[in-house]
Write a structure and sequence with these properties.
- The chain has 230 residues and is an all-beta fold.
- The strands form three sheets. Strands 3, 4, 5, 6, 8, 11, 12 and 13 form an eight-stranded antiparallel β-sheet that branches.
- It is elongated, with a radius of gyration of 30 Å.
- 21% of the residues are buried.
Length: 230
């Protein structure tokens, strides 16, 4: 609150009259709020094996990309702070797959490359948990629709379907690919611990064809977790 400080100075003029001088000053201003908006980037890289014993095939796959967002903080206002993970999006994710021969004797995957006859892939994103369903928007080549989500049944997901012919390895990539989510927000007393954002999830479903036989398996949901610096 602005205050006025008055200082009275008296001096004597040549005629002996008193001259009153008023000096106006500024008081201490109200402290500014600690509002911040920081860009954050979390890289992710997930590599695993998926085994198809009946097809004598192992798939070694990896999903990589970046999760970008703004870590926003408003306040304190009336003792509370407004935290947000704003504009989160998965940027240009890359999926690579390599086929290897499965050894039925040792029941393990070898390092001998093996080609599939055909490979259908659904590469999908949503909130990681069954109850975390943020709104989704996408850029081509991703689409939005109802799809299978492991242990949760059918859910709305951002997905990229693609098919590939006979090969031993393959890479799915598009530099303009984006999967965008609605913001996460917390409004809480300023002395509470920092909020822990919910994780986003990625799942890949493979339908593999070999000569005379085919099989479908998925990776299960894999977590992509924001680590904001407010």
């Amino acid at each position: 609150m602005r205050q006025t400080i008055r200082r009275l100075l008296r001096s004597t003029t040549a005629g002996g009259a008193a001259l009153l001088v008023i000096v106006a000053g500024l008081g201490t201003p109200t402290p500014a709020f600690a509002n911040t908006s920081r860009p954050n980037t979390d890289s992710f890289s997930i590599s695993k094996w998926l085994v198809f014993p009946e097809l004598f095939l192992c798939l070694n796959y990896s999903v990589t990309g970046t999760l970008t967002y703004k870590a926003v903080r408003y306040g304190p206002v009336d003792g509370n702070i407004d935290y947000r993970v704003a504009s989160p999006q998965v940027v240009a994710p890359t999926l690579t797959v390599n086929g290897y021969q499965y050894d039925s004797v040792s029941h393990g995957c070898t390092r001998k490359p093996l080609a599939w006859l055909k490979l259908d892939v659904q590469h999908a994103y949503k909130g990681y948990g069954c109850s975390f369903n943020p709104s989704i928007s996408v850029q081509v080549p991703f689409s939005i629709g109802v799809g299978f989500w492991p242990s949760c049944g059918n859910r709305k997901v951002g997905f990229w379907n693609s098919s590939y012919g006979q090969a031993k390895s393959w890479k799915q990539y598009n530099s303009s690919a984006r999967v965008k989510f609605d913001q996460q927000r917390w409004y809480q007393p300023q002395h509470n611990p920092l909020p822990k954002p919910s994780c986003y999830g990625v799942m890949v479903r493979y339908h593999v064809y070999m000569r005379g036989i085919d099989d479908t398996k998925d990776t299960g949901q894999l977590a992509i977790c924001p680590t904001p610096e407010w």
